[in-house]
Design brief:
The protein is α/β, with parallel strands linked by helices. The chain is 38% helix and 13% strand. The protein has a domain at 7-252: Alpha-Beta Complex (Amidase signature (AS) enzymes), CATH 3.90.1300.10.
């Protein structure tokens, strides 16, 4: 487990004047200076801006002001979240030089809570990938073993927390892009209920699947960060118009009396050490008073195929706006159509092109009903299967990733092998339910394993209660 100071203790120390925000931020910037060249978690380090923000926080505290629950806490932002006047690239050449004219809602909310932003983190281009090897700016390395990937697409955000570059970070999760890198880097990662966190200012990959969530060192920090950024936003038409439930009070409730589901028809493919960790998780929960109930979710196994039609279809539509006219870079050509083709051909990387072509094909006349339409039916079946399962259980536990962090280049030549990394995470995105990865045990080369906890929509309090119990049994760090 992490030995770094928790965000809660940082905020408490800064708020009381025991520590200065400038000192805290300087310590994290020093860690970045020491290892960033090796890890490459960031596309942009906001050194000067972070120190200025920290100075303002110290001045406000000295004046007797209440700064907020994240006072002086260093946070890294995935580089697909809009930051006003600060380059936002999605790790793509096509957005070279673009500076958004506004902040994402989550960025504004965290700033209001006293957070200090230390940088924009690397990702698979437009969040398309499971290893952060698809970035136009080069790969991010896993801080625990730099010969291996940190997962993706939010690999930079996961690596930033795992390396101690930031106390917390934000990622986005379209098919597992928070939970899988959290598992591979040994940190906590949460995909909230769809609509619980505003997507305003998140550059879209697949709009019906994308959700912003936290990376932290422990479950309690994840609860704090989620509480600070969740809640209704009238600027996001998909935002849930009701208050987000309190999470902090769930952390110590335990699991006695809870019914935890074990999916008996879960797709195979997880490594033996991952399966063993999940089995141990069920034992721990049973010992803590939970009832373990076997359930079936027949449609679970079709999640991967449905996702890789729905997500590329939405990406094909969303990425049509990057045309050399409205955003970022342009390649000049003889006429408009030639300019479009040259700009997109040069601006997008191979994985983004692959998914745009796949999505455009799935939406084309003559194929829509055969592919996209059928995928939507599978999505509906999956929602029904999960609803049936949740009639008899309060939460579910599965692997987060089929394996521990894998070596660089080991899956890049086989896109299908890479896509299989998302086998256990995709269903939650398709149905909009919350899910999170908690470090639980170790596998090959003593690398961390993540166990995934799933719950029904707006079931975060129960999900966090289960996650906190797993963390306690794993010797969780509560500095």
């Amino acid at each position: 487990m992490s030995t770094f100071q928790s965000a809660r203790s940082i905020a408490a120390s800064v708020s009381t004047g025991e520590s200065s925000a400038v000192d805290v931020v300087s310590q994290h910037l020093a860690r970045i200076e020491e290892r960033e060249e090796e890890v490459h978690a960031f596309n942009l380090v906001l050194r000067d801006e972070a120190l200025q923000s920290a100075e303002r926080i110290d001045e406000r505290i000295a004046a007797g002001e209440q700064v907020g629950p994240l006072a002086g806490v260093p946070i890294a932002l995935k580089d697909n979240l809009c930051t006003r006047g600060i380059p936002t690239t999605c790790s793509s050449n096509i957005l070279d030089g673009w500076r958004p004219p506004y902040d994402a809602t989550v960025v504004s909310r965290l700033a209001d809570a006293g957070a200090v932003f230390v940088g924009k983190t690397n990702l698979d281009e437009f969040a398309m990938g499971s290893s952060t090897e698809n970035s136009a700016f080069g790969p991010t390395r896993n801080p625990l073993d730099t010969s291996r990937v940190p997962g993706g697409s939010s690999g930079g955000s996961a690596a930033a927390v795992a390396a101690g570059f930031s106390a917390m970070s934000l990622g986005s999760d379209t098919g597992g892009s928070i939970r899988q890198p959290a598992a591979l880097c040994g940190v906590v990662g949460v995909k909230p209920t769809y609509g619980a966190v505003s997507r305003l200012g998140l550059i879209a990959f697949a709009s019906s699947l994308d959700q912003i969530g936290p990376f932290t060192h422990d479950v309690a920090d994840a609860a704090l960060l989620l509480e600070c950024m969740a809640g209704h936003d009238p600027g996001d038409s998909t935002s849930i118009p009701q208050p987000f439930p309190s999470l902090s009070e769930s952390l110590d409730r335990g699991v006695a009396g809870l019914r935890i589901g074990r999916i008996v028809d879960l797709p195979s493919g997880a490594d033996a050490d991952v399966v063993a960790s999940v089995d141990r998780a069920f034992e721990v929960l049973a010992d803590a008073g939970a009832e373990i109930i076997d359930v079936t979710i027949p449609a679970f196994t079709y999640g991967l195929t449905a996702y890789y039609l729905i997500a590329p279809a939405e990406a094909s539509s969303n990425l049509a706006r990057y045309d050399g006219v409205r955003f970022g870079s342009r390649v000049e050509a003889a006429d408009t159509n030639s300019m479009y083709m040259a700009t997109r051909g040069e601006g997008f990387g191979p994985e983004v092109k692959r998914r745009i072509m796949l999505g455009t094909y799935a939406l084309s006349a003559g194929y829509y009903d055969a592919y996209y339409g059928k995928a939507l039916k599978v999505r509906r079946l999956m929602a029904q299967d999960f609803a049936t399962a949740y009639e008899s259980v309060d939460a579910l536990v599965t692997p987060a990733s089929p394996s521990v962090a894998f070596p660089f280049g080991s899956k890049t030549s086989d896109p299908l092998a890479m896509y299989l990394c998302d086998t256990y995470t995709i269903p939650s995105n398709l149905i909009g339910h919350p899910a999170m990865s908690v470090p639980f045990g170790a596998g090959e080369n003593d690398l961390p394993i993540g166990v995934q906890v799933l719950a029904p929509a707006m079931g975060e309090p129960t999900m966090f209660a289960v996650a906190a119990e797993l963390e306690r049994s794993a010797g969780g760090n509560h500095v």
